[in-house]
C-alpha cells in the first residue's frame, strides 16, 4: 500500500469515526449539511485511479470547494453562528484534512510545463483559501466580538463600502511614498554599492554603518524626518529611503563579490577592463543578490510608509486612516486598509519576483530537473 493510499484510508477511517460519534451523541447531521463534505473526502479513496483520468484532480477540487461553501453557509446560519458545537468543529477538521489531501494530490499529479505551473499555483491558492475560510469559521462559530477580530466576509464588505476612501489612501501612500521612496532608496543604494566596490576603504566604512542604521527603529526616524522634510509626503518618502538604502547596498556589494575567481582570472587574461568585467561578468552574477534586495525593500517600503503616517501629516493615507479609525473603534475600516496594504505589498513583491525570474532564468534555482 502506498503512502498516498494510507492517507486516504486514514481520512476514510476518520470520517467513519466522526459519523459514529455523531450518532452516539444524538446529533446525526442532515445530508444537506454534511453530504458534500463526506463526498469530497471519501473521493480520495479512489486517488490511485487518478492516472487513468486526466481531469481527476479538477473534479476533486470542485467537490472540495463546494464542501467549503456548504460549511461556510452552515456557520452563518442562526443555529450555528456564535454557538458552534463539537459536531461542527469535527466537520471542519475533516474538511481541513480533505484539503490537505487535495494539496498533496495536485502537487503529485500531471507532467509537463503546464502541469508544473498548475502544481505551483494551485496548492498555494488552495492553502490561502482554506486559511481564510478557517478564519471565517472560527470568528463566526465562536461569535468573536468585531472589536477583537472581524471575519474575512465582513472585511470584504468594508472594502466594497469604503472603496473610494481606500483608493484615495492607496494612491497617496503607495505612489507618493512607497514607490518613490523604494526607487530612490534602492537606486541610490545600488549606485553607492558600485562606488564602494571600486573604493575598498568606502566599502569597509559603509557596511558597518549600514548595520547600525538598520537597527534604528522607525518610530525614532519618522519624527526627525518630519522636522527635516515638512509634514507632507516628502517626510514619509524620506523614511522609506532611509529604510531601503542599506539593504540594497549590502546585497549589491555581496553580489558583486559573488563571481568566481576563475571567471575573473579569465576576464583578466582577455585584457578586459574593470568596467567590461563589471558589465559582462560581475553584474550578471550579482543579479540574484540585487533582486533579493529589491524584494526585501518592497516590504520594508510599505511598512515604513504606513508607520511614518502615524505621526503628524496630511489627513490622508493608509497609515493615517488606520491610526485614526482604530482610535474610534472603526475596526471594519482598519481591517479594510490592512487588507489593501497586504494585497498591494504582495502584488508588488510578486511583480519583482516575476521580473527576477525573467532576468535570472539561468540561475540553478530555476533549472528544471
Automatic annotation (TrEMBL):
It is found in: Cell membrane. The keyword Transmembrane helix applies. Residues 189-359 form the ABC transmembrane type-1 domain. SUPFAM superfamilies: MetI-like. It comes from the Bacteria. CDD domains: TM_PBP2. Pfam families: BPD_transp_1. Keywords: Cell membrane, Membrane, Transmembrane, Transmembrane helix, Transport. Its main location: membrane. This is ABC transporter permease. It comes from Labrys neptuniae.
